Amino acid sequence: MSEPSISVAIKMLDPDLPVPSYAHPSDAGADLHARESLVLEPGARALIPTGIALAIPHGYVGLVHPRSGLAAKHGITVVNAPGTVDAGYRGEIMVTLLNTDKSAAFEVNRGDRIAQLVIQKVERAVFIEADSLDDSARGTGGFGSTGGFNSK
After folding, report:
1. Are 70 and 88 a contacting pair, CB within 8 Å?
2. Is 110 known as a binding-site position?
C-alpha cells in the first residue's frame, strides 16, 4: 500500500457525499462524486458540483481527469481535461462533463463517481525573453510533424 505523501484539507459542502478516496492502493486519482443528478443528452455538457472544497498546499495542483470506464462505456469525458484546481482556489470543485455519444443520453445520479482528482507537485518557471532558441530535433514542427496527425 502506498503511503500518503501530502495532506490536503477538505471541506465537505455536502456531508452526505463520500470523501474522495482511492479505489486501489496504487491509484493516482481519487474519485469525485456528483452532488446533483441530471441527464446529459447526446453532445451536451454540464457543470456538475462535487460537494467539496479543498485547500491544496502551495506548490501543488489538483488535476481533474475523466474516468476511463465512463469514457469507454458511455463516451463521457471532462471537457477541459485535465481541469486545473490551483492551490489558492477555495470554492467548490466543479466538473464539466461532456457526452460525446451521438445517440444515447447519460444519466448522472447524485453520488455517482464522475471524475478523478490527481494531486501533483508543480514547478514554476521563470520566462526569459530571447532573440533565438537552441536548435532541437523537432524544430518548429507542430501538429502532425512526427506523423501522428493526418490533415487529409
Report:
1. no
2. no
